[in-house]
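Retry 2 of 3 after timeout on previous attempt. Resubmitting structure tokens to design endpoint.
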């Protein structure tokens, strides 16, 4: 129950507030093109997806839209402490035994940075590429 409340608060905090003046607050939300690159460090596989979504949509919503409209697939779990946790992409899951996971990155121009939030809270920006990189730790 507490996790549901936390998740809902996270989503609510990310929603725009219509009616506060100006186009960005008029209830008329802009659409943005979101590009998602899926890479696998071990096999050098690369697949790219893109879709138009409402500006401010969390990555979880973007991934659900991709899953509904394209050949993209993902699974997730809900962690009581941390929220939505990405488990697998296109049938490939992270593994504690193999020390593999899906690293979430953002590419803006030539700069790539690791995200400090997950798919439940992250909002992709215009002219950014969201990268899901299958890799290892340790």
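Retry 2 succeeded. Sequence:
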């Amino acid at each position: 129950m507490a996790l549901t409340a936390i998740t809902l608060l996270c989503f609510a905090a990310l929603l725009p507030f219509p009616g506060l003046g100006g186009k960005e607050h008029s209830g008329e939300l802009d659409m943005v093109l979101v590009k998602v690159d899926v890479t696998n460090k071990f096999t050098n596989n690369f697949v790219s997806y893109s879709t138009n979504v409402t500006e401010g949509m969390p990555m979880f919503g973007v991934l659900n839209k991709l899953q509904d409209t394209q050949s993209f697939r993902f699974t997730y779990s809900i962690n009581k402490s941390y929220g939505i946790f990405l488990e697998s992409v296109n049938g490939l899951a992270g593994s504690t035994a193999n020390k593999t996971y899906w690293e979430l990155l953002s590419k803006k121009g030539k700069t790539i940075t690791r995200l400090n939030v997950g798919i439940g809270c992250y909002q992709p920006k215009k002219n950014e590429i969201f990268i899901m990189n299958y890799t290892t730790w340790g």
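Attempt log closed. The chain has one domain: 30-136.
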